[in-house]
Amino acid sequence: MTKYNGSCHCGAIKFEIEAELTNFRTCNCSICKKKNAVMMSVNETDFKLLQGQEHLALYQWNLKIAKHHFCKICGIYTFHHTRSIPGVMGVNVNCLDDVDLSHIPIKYVDGASLSSKTDAD
User: Fold this and answer.
1) Structural domains in the chain?
2) Running DSSP on this structure, what letter comes out for residue 117?
């Protein structure tokens, strides 16, 4: 696995993941559609918040299980704790340094059908 550094737009939130860059996805649930992020999953043990805990804001809705984190200063969604898979986090791949998504396939997930009944990731 490879280490990647990531941050929000203003740099207040900095994190590191250790992962292989695979399984990129975007979702059509109500929150993902609006934030338009490309996400990938990492184990919580492979994620490290390096700085900015005090600048993290939390957004939850519906069942209040998934925890979506974004920067209080610039508003960028950085990562979230999933509802459906405990111990796994979704990371906004666009926040990773030096990662070019222009030639990488992205899977489209029908999260809208899940969020009509429960809180989507």
Assistant:
1) 2-115 (2.170.150.70)
2) T
Reported residue count of the chain is 121
**Residue 75 is encoded by which pair of tokens?**
């508003």
Alpha-helical runs (H) found in the chain: 30-35, 111-115
Looking at residue 92, its amino acid is N
Q: Which residue has the tokens 């990647």?
A: 4
119, 61 Cβ separation under 8 angstroms: yes
CA distance 17 to 44: 9
Q: Look up residue 67 and give its two tokens.
A: 């925890």
Q: Is the pLDDT of residue 106 over 80?
A: no
Give 46's Cβ-side CA count (13 Å radius): 18
> Lowest-pLDDT range, 11-20, 36-45, 75-84, 99-108?
99-108
Q: What is the pLDDT of residue 39?
A: 93
Structural tokens at position 53: 């805990």
* CA pair distance 52, 76, nearest whole angstrom: 13
